[in-house]
Amino acid sequence: MDLVVIAQIITGAATLLVASVLIYQLRIQHNDSVRDFQFQRETQLLEITNLVLENNEFTDLWIRGGEDYNNLKTDVERYQFNIYLRNYIRLAIFQAEKIPDNSNRAVARFILSGPGRRHVYKSNLKHMVYNRAPNLSKIWDEVYKEFSGEDISNVIPDIIPGTINYKAYEESSGEKIGD
After folding, report:
1. What is the dihedral of CA 46, 59, 117, 132, to 10 degrees?
2. Domain coordinates in residue numbering, the chain
3. What is the full per-residue pLDDT of the chain (179 aa) written as tens digits?
4. CA-CA distance, 99 to 54, in Å (whole number)?
């Protein structure tokens, strides 16, 4: 064997060794990023849950609105309720691809267990889930049907009524949701 062939073998072996080390480091970094994501998710869930637990007025609002959206008497209450629910659903959408379907179903059951929250989901927030996570939308629609008996899989809101302009939504839909 001449010197060139030996040098090529040594270079190839060194390249293979470096590639193996890099692959190992990438696996470690990936595992770290998965752990970081899970930690961030748990932190966000704790923060959003603590808002309800640490603020009695908001706890009352969350319970009243969850039981019946019409229990929310002012634009401010409806706005707070909708924004909180929207943020909770955004977090659910963000994590949806990274957790199993049974966990997504559990989140949907928590959120959609209250008739008031189901109302806001159907009339205002379903489009967000449908457009950003179609597979998650199917799960949420199944859970909605479990609780209400109503199949909303074909319901896609054309408008986003918000809370401040709920009167315009009432006029366009014929559905009474406010004072």
Report:
1. -30
2. 55-173
3. 688 888 888 899 999 988 888 898 988 888 888 778 777 877 877 777 777 778 899 899 999 999 999 999 999 999 999 999 998 898 888 888 778 888 899 999 999 999 999 999 998 889 888 888 888 999 999 999 999 999 998 887 655 544 444 555 566 556 665 44
4. 28
